[in-house]
Amino acid sequence: MPANGGAETADVLIVGGGSAGAVLANRLSADPAHTVLLVEGGPAYASDQYPASLRDPARVGDDVEHDWGLTATIDDTGRVIRTPRGKVLGGSSAVNAAVALRARADDFEKWAAHGATGWSFEEVLETYRALENTPDGDPQLRGRSGPFPVRLRTRAELTPSLRAFVDASAAQGFARLDDPNGTQQNGVTPYPLNVVNEVRQNTGLVYLTDEIRRRPNLTIWGRTTVDRVLFDRTTATGIVTLDGQVLRAGEVVLSAGTYGSAGILMRSGIGPAADLGRHGIEVVSDLPVGRRFQDHPFYYNIYALKPDANAMSPAAGAIVWTRSAEAVGDELDLHISATHLADPGISPTGGAMVLATAVTQPDSIGSVSLRSRDPKDGLAINLNFLAEPRDRRRMIEGVQISRRIGRDAAMAAVVDSELTPGPDVRDDAALEQVIRQQLDTYQHPTSTAPMGGDDDLWSVVDSVGNVRGVSRLRVVDASIMPRVPSTAPNVTTIMLAEHIARTSML
């Protein structure tokens, strides 16, 4: 990149090379007239140099070498848990469970209720199709030639216990689905995954191929952590890295993720004025960054498998996606995810199966704030799970459904015993206590810088990611979702970046 007074210069500087940033780097550098600089806090591996830990879809959340090391308070008990986020080119798409489920029309209707325009399901369907390549489903709904591969697990690929889960769920009354990215999601189905030949296809691989990286107007810097955005009054002019380097740009785009982008915004003077003042940060724009944060609460119902049915690969297999007794409108607010994403050592038989329940349309709102002005101190993350009574009731209902599936006759041939919550947990009060003790995150954080209309007091950005009160600064990642969607947000994050690039940046 050309030097300018000792600082690097680009037309667009993208902070974060994950599920959104890699997409933007690809799309924006397609115009040779514009220079694009992508800076990523983790390593920027060449496409043939990703280590086995990142290629293996059975490795989820345990790769400390490629993690930001964040922790969070889970609820009002004060219990602290890890909240893994990918620190590598490809971001969390390189370390997640590779679930490739789209958000639903109901999710986008809820976005619209916050004043986010241009995001109806009808308006984003073509973008979903354009990003995807899959042999599955109706070609009127599914994409055949996009960069992002999606493959629906076949029944033959599932382990015996995952097949039993599908059969047991059907026996419990859940419809068998042919394509959960089609017109129906209420039922049981094998997972669609961005996995090909048992290799996790992260955005660093599929959007930043060797050919894309050779573009002369695209530069990618790995191991470059960003401290803050630079401003001339209220105009963004570049960024400052953790080691003090100044990088100038015509426009700055934060794609550092729900946590990363929120932290950069607040350290830059964009956030709640009272919070920033406590850290001695001059306010550039008083906005509610981190105040409408959401994630999905997640509880693990675990079974030991019989010795003759203890196969655990492939790890991610099938899901029940359905509505609770308290679901509103068309929402599907419960997931029961069947996987082998567990240490086999926890099982006395050497094989384990996890039926994990999530409340996917939570009422509870968490928060993200700065611990200090120093980015090395991390963030104060409060998940605030199950704070609202309806969330608690729905979680209990979901675990009850999970246990009914686990006890169905179809599971008898593969299940040895229930490990958690365990056979001694029988009534709702005991079940709620165990859930609170063992609750975890689905690792689906969103909404720390949400989109919204001019009359939405909680919005941080407009409907195409422009930060309110300043110019030449956007946020484009899961942090701008007005609320968490009812499924894993990774594919929707990719779609969001594609959609904003196509509709307002190209």
UniProtKB/TrEMBL annotation:
Superkingdom to which the source organism belongs: Bacteria
Protein name: GMC family oxidoreductase N-terminal domain-containing protein
The entry's keywords: FAD, Flavoprotein
SUPFAM superfamilies reported in the protein's UniProt record: FAD-linked reductases, C-terminal domain (SSF54373), FAD/NAD(P)-binding domain (SSF51905)
Entry similarity comment: Belongs to the GMC oxidoreductase family.
Pfam families assigned to the protein according to its UniProt record, in alphabetical order: GMC_oxred_C, GMC_oxred_N
InterPro entries reported in the protein's UniProt record: FAD/NAD-bd_sf (IPR036188), GMC_OxRdtase (IPR012132), GMC_OxRdtase_N (IPR000172), GMC_OxRtase_C (IPR007867)
Cofactor(s), by name: FAD
Domain spans labelled Glucose-methanol-choline oxidoreductase N-terminal: 86-109
